[in-house]
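Changelog-adjacent note: as of this version, every example in the card shows the full chain rather than a window. The one below runs 287 residues end to end.
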Amino acid sequence: MTIPRLNLADNPLHIREHFHEVGAVVIGNVLDPELLQRFNNNIRLLLHKQLQQATADNRPFAEDNRTLDELFSALCRIDRHRGGYVYDAIQWLPEYLEILSTSGLVAASRILLDTERVISPPLLSWVRIDRHGEQQNAFPWHQDYTYNLASRPTITAWLPLLDITEDMGPLTVVPGSHNFHHPVEVHETDRYASITGIEVDELEAQAITVTPQAGEALFFHELLLHRSGANQSDRARWVLNARWASLDDPAYTERGWQFRKERSFRLLRELHKDKYKPHADHPAVTE
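Full-length structure tokens:
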């Protein structure tokens, strides 16, 4: 089974049927190239400003022809913490919010959730910058429901800001795995949840990697099993992760459209008591 590559101009029923069958689709042309270029250019500006603070390089931004990747690598070589400053500031750029509300993403989420009434909580979205050798933030096999906790279902949009190649560790997924809701063992102290009852070797045998390109988006169901890939290239993997939920879910409306805002798993315990199990060494935290 493969992940279908579709276009917004395709029949919405056709798109939705593929999504329901596989649990994921790649949809092309969801981002305006001009908006994406502005966003990337303003990230370059953030990096340029931090490099000016960290070095004696006072060239004007207009004369700095280094790429996004080249600027980020140069900054991290000098001061990795300054790279973290840029990571945080990216979400304050006006283009970041523009992308979350761009017409292509809204249209695709409406098709996949089969409703005109959708919502995308900004706090459930972020940009990941994964460099070679920095695997500390990589996720093993998981389902996003433990982190979303919005409507059922909620969908993830995985949007590369730059083109992705196989050696950059694209997302690895198991097509069709969205039909089973796996329980999790929660490590409250370390703030992560691990799926129980899975055979990793079996998942790897069924898994495929997906390489959407800049301007495209991989949309997947919150129950689709997936994991991070290891970046073996000399470039960073720049990806915006956005979440889309349905306002047609009565339970989501009843709780005032809460989602997981804090780092604890309090809401997971409340909403999925039958799927939640605290790890023996990490008892549930009482807020």
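Structural remarks: Residues 5-31+102-278 form a domain with the Jelly Rolls fold (CATH 2.60.120.620).
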